[in-house]
Amino acid sequence: MKQYLYSLESEWIKTRRSTASWLVIAGGFFIPLIVISMRLLKPASLASVYKAADFWERTFVQNWQVMAFFLLPMGIILAASLITQLEYRNNTWKQLHTTPQKFSTVFFAKLSVIILMMLQFFVFFNIGIYLSAAVPAWIYRDISLPANSFPYLFFLQKNAIFFVDCLPIIAIQYLVGLQFKNFLVPLGVGIGLLVAASFAVSWEYGYMVPYTYSLFNFFEMSSGKQGIYPAVNFHLVAAGYFVTCTIASYILYINKKDKC
Length: 260
Hints:
Elements: H1 2-14, H2 19-41, H3 46-51, H4 55-84, H5 86-90, H6 93-97, H7 103-139, H8 152-179, H9 184-200, H10 213-222, H11 234-255
């Protein structure tokens, strides 16, 4: 366990000030900044918006709309590919494998860093969602935040579901990234599957494409009438994909002859 924690710390240090790190911060605040700008530019309509009983839920859905459809999956594709390719770009796989740690420790430490960075993104994004509501209220005195309590459980539940639905993307990008030295390969695979997901989302069996789950989740969360979403519990399917792809990735990594 200690070896894993040391390895995790080492892998986390590598991400500091990296492109993936800045991508997480920029991605987390990008959509909320757009929502803030839209609200500040149209103050006349804000009074009725802020008086709505479901104001926080609407604000949450508004911020997630573009994020669920494109930015979150694309951000995960980029971040996971960048982190996985760190050793290839710096030519440090040989150095890493000469350290006194098991291959399994290296594998799960790197995977954990990607998952932790996604959690970090969710934290930044939800701070941004709150600010998208609070900033206009701070600037314009004639509007104020709703008097009813903040729906913590709603936010936690929906974020947890989105998190689970994105795990297959991490697992697949990690699998491909460990097998190919060229950064363009995992990037191309990810973009290709994301494009496929945009078409598969209207298909009865679209849940078989593992990059569709954040889209299905948004449909289900917003109104349930914006598209065809599967009758099966696709959150469980997403979890199954993650476990299966992680196991496959681990077996391929352990048995890979040339890990450099």
